[in-house]
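Still learning folds. Look over my entry:

…
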Amino acid sequence: MTVYLDCNATTPLDPAVRDALMQYLDEEYGNAGSRTHEFGAKAKQSVERARRCVSNLARADPQDVVFTSGATESNNLAIRGLAEYGQRIGKKHLVTTAIEHKAVLEPFEQLERQGFEVTIVPVDASGAVAAAAVEDAIRRDTLLVSVMHANNETGVVQPVQEIAEKLEPEGPYLHVDAAQTFGKLDEPLQHPRVDLISLSAHKIYGPKGVGALIARRRGRTRPPLQPLMHGGGQERGLRPGTLPVHLIVALGEAAERAARDKKERAARCQEIRRGIVDALVPLGAQFNGDQSLVMPHVLNCSVPGVDSEAAMLACKGNIAISNGSACTSVSYTPSHVLEAMGLSEDRIEGAMRLSWCHLTPDADWQALIRQPLQQLAI
């Protein structure tokens, strides 16, 4: 049996989440927009319960939660949804970092083509951006700052809370792509100065195809977002279309379980990490990114003399791993994240990402990882 070690790409479905999903797919199949009968009323109640479960992790108001198809759509809504407002008030400067997911960098590129100015803050070999560097990049005409919470390739946690604390109360909006941390590292996301939070269900043991944007109000004022689509008026007009009740209920269940089981899950991930590191150290593995800042379930490493593509082939049938973001793996190109960290070409070409979770089974990591890679390193 192949052991799955690509949980940063997507996680397995929690059995209890699957049960909730199937109940609202097979039995409670009403449309949440149907207000004239009990099927619709039950669906709406279930959606609102899920909204509360998601908002609780960020200590936001449930009405600040907008359900989407996932973090990519949420990122686009947060970034592109502010463009009209920025143009109207003359704030057309944006700040982000060099290690963001393409779902952030590409919307920024689009706005740049529309006349916005973008400042990209670099990182160093640690894989983390400096909060002071982000602060220095902010100007009077800065509309939005977008910083991911943890990098999807290295697992390095970014100083989101420190950045939030440096922002003026009426300063630029702060957007955080929390796809990799929501339900795992929530305290920084609870900072009242974090205005916009993107998340996906399939990163917290829920189904693919659903996520949310938390658009936190400042006082009574909502972020002035404009929808990317029109027609229907659902989700306060920001995300029209019939709500996928079964997916939303599953996201709510996943969020509730994440809140309840967070510590136990993290402890299990640390246990697995120790076994994997012990298997890799004798090979002279170089761990990419400051390991004191890395999430407990992620390891990005390079083994001297071993190409990542060859490593994945050697380990095929033993473990399922990746050498970068799943969203850009169709045609492999060198990681923009590792390049931004200033790593050597050999180290980038050899980089592998291993990511696991509390559902990952116990395994003989020496046999599954060390032995296949040792043959390549000879």
